[in-house]
Design brief:
The complex is a heterodimer.
Chain A: E1 3-8, E2 11-16, E3 20-21, H1 26-37, E4 42-47, E5 53-54, H2 56-67, E6 73-78, H3 82-90, E7 98-100, H4 103-106
Parallel strand pairs in A: 2-4, 3-5, 4-6, 6-7
Antiparallel strand pairs in A: 1-2
Chain B: E1 14-22, H1 28-40, H2 48-67, E2 75-82, E3 86-93, H3 123-131, E4 133-140, E5 143-151
Antiparallel strand pairs in B: 1-2, 2-3, 3-5, 4-5
Helix pairs in contact in B: 1-2, 2-3
Classes of the chains: A alpha/beta, B alpha+beta.
Chain lengths: 114, 156
């Protein structure tokens, strides 16, 4: 599962380079999020622009990824595609996560540190 | 008096697709995409294709994970048909029967709780019940039969 990680001051942007988060990738997804958020404080923003589809297992994995964060870390989402947005809306998980229209919106005003 | 009836076969389902595929959990995504691609050519209204993709994925996941316990050795059969108001699906598998031989309720998950208590599962049947119509399950000749429709009129 491919992810691109960019660090900002007090935040991390993780861009997912996969088209689906589903049952077959759920465990790997959780492990990679844990790995890339370890030791960092602040906002972890997941850019899902390339993700066309998230099934119930994928949704569960995103929730699990949020639950495994340390104190002082939050998980936010950006760029949900229509079908993904629908799954979040129907399950009311769109009220649980902060969702941005784009990663630009999520990071307006922040400087990329590398 | 002669009564000549011009009976139009409105609503007779037209079979679009009849597939057999492996229960291998890894292949679920590919199978769902094949089904979606076949239906996509119909240019369905109202984001029906989104609903189809969501429900079909959950149904196949369930058959693969629960009826066949994750084994790649099972076969799943699906007949997809088209009426003027919906796409109908009939899934058949020879895996384990549903607990109690009936459909799970699929109630909405409680999410008004502390973050650490949020559910990580149980969304699948909720999505199937919310977007699927006329769901039915029966067991016949040691096979599971699951039927449902996705309507063209918007449900959500």
């Amino acid at each position: 599962m491919q992810m691109n990680v960019e660090n900002f001051n007090g935040a991390v942007l993780i861009t997912l380079n996969v088209s689906r988060i589903d049952a077959s990738g759920a465990v790997r997804f959780k492990d990679l999020i844990r790995e890339h958020s370890a030791g960092k404080t602040g906002r972890i923003v997941l850019d899902l622009a390339q993700v066309d589809f998230v099934d119930s297992s994928g949704l569960g994995a995103i929730v699990a990824a949020m639950k495994q964060l340390s104190t002082g870390q939050t998980l936010e989402l950006a760029s949900l595609s229509p079908t993904v947005e629908k799954v979040f809306r129907l399950t009311r998980m769109d009220t649980v996560f902060k969702i941005h229209a784009s990663s630009e919106d999520a990071f307006a005003g922040m400087t990329n540190t590398g | 008096m002669q009564y000549v009836a011009n009976i139009e076969k409105i609503g007779d389902p037209i079979t679009l697709l009849h597939m057999h595929f492996s229960s291998d959990p890894i292949a679920v995504g590919d199978v769902t995409m094949s089904i979606s691609a076949a239906i996509d050519q119909l240019n369905l209204p109202n984001n029906s294709l989104e609903n189809i993709e969501i429900v079909v994925t959950e149904v196949i996941n369930n058959i693969s994970e629960h009826a066949y316990q994750g084994s790649a050795d099972g076969f799943i059969e699906v007949v997809v048909a088209h009426t003027n108001a919906s796409i109908s699906f009939h899934f058949i598998d020879s895996g384990l029967e549903m607990p109690g031989r009936k459909l799970p309720q699929g109630s909405a998950q409680k999410i008004d709780c502390a973050p650490e208590d949020l559910p990580e599962g149980g969304f699948g049947w909720f999505l199937i019940h919310t977007l699927g119509h006329a769901l039915s399950y029966y067991r016949k000749n040691n096979e599971n039969h699951l039927k449902f429709q996705i309507m063209f009129a918007p449900t959500s």
